[in-house]
Each structure stands twice: as C-alpha cells, then as structure tokens.
Amino acid sequence: MTAHRLTDEHVFVTGGTGFVGQAILERLLSSHPETRVSLLIRGKGSQTGADRLTSLLRKPVFKGWIASVGGEDAAAAIVAKRVSVVEGSLSRITSPIPKDVDVVIHSASTVSFDPPIDEAFDTNVGGARTIYGALLDAGVDPHVVHISTCYVGGIRKGIVPEASLTHEVDWRAEYEAARSARERVELESRRPEALREQIAKAKARHGKTGPQAVAQFAEAARTEWVRERLVDYGRMRAESLGWTDVYTLTKAFAERAAEELWGAEHRLSVLRPSIIESALHHPFPGWIDGFKVADPLIIAYGRGQLQEFPGIPDSILDVIPVDLVVNAALAVAANPPAPATPQYFQICSGKTNPLPFHRMYENVNGYFTRNPLPAEKGDIQVPSWKFPGIQKVERSLRKRERRVDRAERILERLPTTKRTRRMLDEVRTGKHGLGQLRAFTELYRAYVQTEIIFDDTRMRELLHSLPEQTQHDEGFDVAEIDWEHYFQNIHFPAVTTLTRAFASRPTAKARATRMLPARSDVVAVFDLEGTVLDSNLIKQYLLLWAGSVPRSRVAHDLADFALSLRKYQRAERRDRGEFIRTFMRRYEGFKVAEIQRLARSSFGRAMMRRALPDALRRVAEHRAAGHRTILVTGSIDLTVTPFLPFFDEVIAGSMHVKDGVLTGYLADPPLVDEARAAWLRHYADQHGYNLSQSYGYGDSHADLVWLQLVGNPTAVNPDIHLYRHAQEKRWNVVDWKRRSAPAPNPSSPTSEPIPITEGVGDAPVKQERAAASHGI
Ligand SMILES: NC(=O)c1ccc[n+]([C@@H]2O[C@H](COP(=O)([O-])OP(=O)(O)OC[C@H]3O[C@@H](n4cnc5c(N)ncnc54)[C@H](OP(=O)(O)O)[C@@H]3O)[C@@H](O)[C@H]2O)c1
C-alpha cells in the first residue's frame, strides 16, 4: 500500500522555535504549500509569541524559502495567511487550540541531559500533560506525533524495538515527587548550619570586598547549591530507576503520559530520533542551529582539551541529520494509525548504516589535523586517543583533578606577579579541560559506552511505502549517508564555522585597547594604589616619615613599625578599611604644613616617579574623549596632591587635625570596597552619569564591588582574586608597567617631567566619604 503525504492539513507544532521545530516549519512552508500551521510559542521578556515568530523568520533556515517566493514581503504575506501563533507555554496555553487541527507535532521539550529534576519533569512530563489535556478540553481529534528520543529505553544492551516501553514505574508518583523536591532542597539550604558554612566560605574568599558582597556571594552559593542538589536528585533518581539521565527518564514518562492521556482513545504516533545533527541536504547541507548534542565534544577535542576519552571504540554512535528527522516526522504525520493503537518509529542510523565510535574519532582527528583551530600562537594540535579503557581514564582523571586543585590552592597563597598569574592561567586551563572531560564523561556515557542498537524496520517500511518522488525529495534513507563525506564536508565545517565566529569576537585585550568613544555622560574612575601608582599606603608613609622624622626618633619609630607589621597584615587580610584605619594612626603628630611642603618637593617627586605611565596615558585618553576622569583613593588628601593636574576630580579621605597637627584619626571612614561602590552610585545619580557605559580601573579584590557597577571594568595588574573574577567575567585585564623614564606631564602624557607646583593643581579634592559611608 502506498503511504500518504501531507496535503492541506492544519498542523499544530510545539517547539517551533527549536532546532527540529524550525526545520519542520520550513519544510511545511517550502514543500507543503497547502498546509496551514499553528505554532505554540511562549512569550519571552517583552516579546509575545507572535513577536517571536517574526524574529524566527529571519533565521538562516528560512532564507532559501524566502528567496524562492520572491523576497521578504511575499514571504510575510504567505506567513500571514498560513501561519498563526497559539500563545502559551508547556505549563499553560493562553489562546484557544484551533478547532480544525488535523495533526499535532509535539516537539517542545528540554533537551538538556541534566537539568534540575523539577524543571525536567515540569517541561517534559508536565508539558505532555498540558498539551494532551488542552486537546481533550478543546474537543479536537488530531493525529498526534509525539517526538521522543531513541535513548528513552534506559540503560540496556542489544536491540531496542520500535514499540511501547516495558517499564512499570508510576510516572504520576515520580512527577509529584520531582515537583516537591525543590521545596525540600530549599528548606535544607536554609538550615542555620548550611548558611553558616556558606557565609564562612564567602568571608574567607570575599571578606575584603565588604559585608554586602559577602552576603551576595553566600546567597549565590546557596542558590547554586540548590541547583546542583536538584540536578543530583535527577541524576540519581534516573540511575536508580535504570535510566541514563533525567532527560531520558522524563522523555520515557512523557511517552507514557502520551499513551495514557491521548493514545488510549485517539491516534498517536511516537517518533524517536537518535542524536540529531546538521542537515544532509535541506534547507542546505550543514544547516544547524547552534551546537547540538555531539558538537561540544567535537569542539572540545578540536581545541585540544580532551587528551583521552572513556568511550568504547566499537560502540555505535547513532547520529541522524536533522532533515531526515523532519522528513520522517512529516511522513509519520501523514500516515496515522487507527485510534487507540499507538505506533512507534525510530529514526536512526545505527542498524542500517552503523558508525562505530572509533570511526567517528578517526574522522574528527583527521579533520582537525588538516584544519586545526587557531590558537593565540599557531594552531592547536589535537591529541591521539588510545582508548585505554573506561576505568583507566577515570583513575587518571581523578589523579589529575587532585593535582590541579592542589596547585591552585598553592598559587592563591603566593604573592601576585605576572608569573603567578600566568601559572594560575595554566592551572585554570588545565582545570577547565578536566572539568569538561568529567562533564562529558558523565553526559555522554549513554552515547559512547553503550552496546545498544535501535531497530528501524518500521521506519524503513514507511519510507519504502512513500511515492517514489517523495522518497527522493523528502526521504529519510539513512543507508544513503556516506559518513566520511557527511562529517568532513558538511557537519564539521558547519560546527567549526560557529566556533570560528565565536573566536573572531574581539579579545578582552583588544577591547581594552580599542579607541574610546567620545561622550560626556560617562566617568572613568581610577583607583590609586596599585593602579595609577606603583606604591601602597605603607611606602607612602615611609617616604613622608623619612622626610620629616627627627634623628632622635628614628630608632624608636623603626622598632615600633617592625613590631606593628603583623598587626597591619592581619587587618589588611580581614578588611581594607580596617587596615587603613589602623595604619593611619601612625600619622599622629605629623604637621599638616610639613606634609604639604613635602608633597610639593621630595615626596611629590617620589610619588610621580612611581606613577605608572600607562595609567596616566589612559587617563589622558579618557580626558581627550570627553569622559570625566576621577581618581578615588583610600589615602588622604594631603598625600595625593601631586596627582591633581591629571584628573578632573580627586576623591580622597582626610584626617582629623588639631592645631595644625594630625591626631591619627580619620575624619571620616575610608572610601574603599562597598563604601566606594555606594559613593560611585550616588555620584552618578547626582551628576547624571551613565554607569553602564562608564569605565573603572582597579587592582585589588577590594575593588571588585565598585568595578562591577561600571560597564567597562578593567583589572590592572590584579591580585589573584580579582584576576580570577576578571577572567570568569571576561573583563579587561592589563599589565601596566613601571616607569623607566621620567614622569609625563598631564598635557603631554608621554614625555615631559611632572610639574610639582607650589599651589594645588586644577582638580578639586573632594571629601564625599562621610556621605558615601552612610550608605547613600
Ligand atoms: N536535538 C537532539 O539531538 C534530539 C535527539 C533526539 C530527540 N530529540 C527531541 O526532539 C525534540 C526537539 O528537540 P530540539 O533539538 O529541537 O530542542 P531545542 O532546540 O532545545 O528546542 C526546544 C523547543 O522546545 C520549546 N520549549 C522548551 N520548554 C518550553 C516550555 N516550557 N514551553 C514552551 N515551549 C518550550 C523551546 O521553546 P523556546 O524557544 O521558547 O525555549 C524550543 O522551541 C525534543 O522533543 C527532543 O527531545 C532531540
């Protein structure tokens, strides 16, 4: 008997914005001009489902069809006539189901292997409930094609038939348990002992950035803990029931829901694809919508990040091009079974045209050897895998993980230099690679360590019963796939194009040195010590002290200073503000007039010798671009006067003075970490500056909170903790070198020596700290 082909049916598609859904919509538009299509699309952000359809049609998959109908206007007119949007999600459908629907293709799903258990159940099992419940409520009787996955049968060996699953698990009970898991885990995460542990960890790591930041990091860690725990719930529940992961578990339960809720009385077909990858022919060879299941593994290999892999070399990697899946889905849609007799199809390659894992490896290795991905210096050399066995790879992985953790801990305790940062980079790259290998090992276990073969007899029978022309134009004959040709000429070029597109985005370094846009609504805020000045509060004090101490006090002061060093170190480790407050007590007895005199002479010159030329050059560039340049320091106004000519504004602290002598007490709290962030927010509000477009430069972990406020943060010669954060957030990181020539002057920031003038420079020194520290 000859099978049918879709003609003028009304097809309702869920998941139309996804990889498979887009390709189904394109095929319906381009090859089935009489059909009408309804798409379930959820709103996102400010976009409604209908808005998202408009954006969707701009995607590359539709390009050929749009050109074939005469351009965008003609295409829009056709879409207006043939396509409509049903607003809603898998939890709630908000507009009515079309009454005349003939076919439903339920493709929407989460395809992540390890989402939190409640999310996986909500989308995949709850989603099936919502869709079939809505169809029942609407009183319609379409043929439903339920898209599932070949891997739905769980951990097993041998041939998997195209038939209903045989398990007896109560999917409803599992659904309820999964949904209540979040409440239990949330409660667990809020226990005082758990919170205490999170706070202690956040304090140890971020204590210097201030109490609000500690709270934020502790809360973020709690949320992450909840997520990880729910992922673990999913993973373990899947494993304990005999499935590889929560994705395949929930897809199995979704099939059962479809059978019970819809298939018991209506027409139901279940279509199970294997691993779907780029198109073989249609809409064009190599079409793919972002990285799919096997692609992160392929790219990680191409990047040289996977030195070995625990796959079984002769296991079958079951890959299927997306256009074959779409053709199969539409063929199934046009050929429904009788009511209450669900039919099952597997669209896969493993039985008819098997691809062993070692052959896939040889293909990938050959491709990246001939077409290496570019590295910063030269090309990336890909490793040779020997497949030494799963246990051996696991053991070696565990050993290497322990080694990099140890190296990271040691490096974090060493003083920060360019060398330690480079070593940390190397350790982190190694750690990232191991992390990926660990994640891939767990995620892909089911796909590269299995001895499963999916039967596709029924699928092939359907293919061969299609009219000859349809078999040719819209077929899904996996036997015709030449794997070498497919990978070398179609799939690998498609996925590496995506990575090269990523790689061609400007690097952090390139962004940092890009021309600054001219505008007057932004600020460029510079920290002083370590960022503009290669010096710290202790060195500044010693310079002033050396210029003013009477000979009779030298020995006493030096001894006292040496005895106090540990106290300062401890305070600095705990809190930058505490350190400043403690250390500034040393200024007790210094005369204001004497400091001013020194700032104009020896101390001023010494400070300018320590100014970083790259910093002053950058300040001048910001000024030239019209940005308001601000120097902010935890130091006191009396010592920063040499920098006044370089900035539009200098914000420094001040000390309490009695009869022209410093008492050793600060006049107001130090402007560091969160106090500085509060000041910056207030300053921008008051003066109308746009922080999201502004610039910030800082060197230490204590600068993190205020740097986060600006759209263009730069870590300058950063300490290890700021460096790590900057790397994670892809901030600019720069190494500004010490001076080897005389200091520049502000109007010509490259050559002239710095003027140490009698009077104060042109920038006002402001003391806004009291306001800032009161948490404006
Ligand atoms: N990709 C594969 O290798 C593969 C292999 C075997 C089987 N499958 C099956 O094929 C089907 C399609 O997969 P795919 O690769 O196209 O996935 P995809 O690209 O991730 O697309 C998923 C689709 O589901 C929609 N969706 C997810 N959660 C939703 C919700 N709560 N409400 C409404 N829509 C929701 C998404 O809409 P938004 O755009 O709104 O997020 C998107 O349209 C799935 O059933 C999957 O299990 C896929």
Give a verbal description of the structure.
With 776 residues, the protein is α/β, with parallel strands linked by helices. The protein is built from 28 helices and 20 strands. The strands form 5 sheets. It has a 7-stranded parallel β-sheet, sandwiched between helices. Helix 19 packs antiparallel against helix 23 (602-609) and helix 20 runs antiparallel to helix 21 (576-584). The radius of gyration is 33 Å and the shape is elongated. The model is unreliable at 748-762 and 767-776 (pLDDT under 50). It binds NADP nicotinamide-adenine-dinucleotide phosphate. Residues 15-21, 42, 89-90, 107-111, 123, 147, 149, 251, 273, 275-276, 292-293 line the site of NADP nicotinamide-adenine-dinucleotide phosphate. NADP nicotinamide-adenine-dinucleotide phosphate (NAP) binds at residues 15-21, 42, 89-90, 107-111, 123, 147, 149, 251, 273, 275-276, 292-293.
